[in-house]
Amino acid sequence: MYGGKHVSEGDTMFVFASENEGGSGLIARGVVTSAKAVAKKKGLARETPRVSITIGRISFAKRPLGRSELKRFGNWSDGRPETELNFKFYRQATNKIAGISDEAAAFLNDFF
User: Fold this and answer.
1) Where are the alpha helices (DSSP H) in the chain?
2) Residue 97 and residue 100: Cα distance in Å, rounded?
3) Cα 3 from chain centroid (whole Å)
């Protein structure tokens, strides 16, 4: 979803703990140490591309950033990094890997 299938070894990742499963949003930053495409299931006409990754943690987030902090950024065309993150991570309540813009990455780096 949103470019996540293009993840590769060496990419920087920002890890969000799923708030739908008791997590608290942004928790860590790390580097992908391995990435492998997961084979599609037979018999499904349409399936989201899946990838299995391993991440080496670099640091923990020093400030909270989750659904409650991003909820007010709902104008999908305002170009703000907060809005991009809200749209990609919280518009659908599913676990996902998503590619983000350089601006959104710079915004997230401020939390470490």
Assistant:
1) 67-70, 81-85, 102-109
2) 10
3) 10
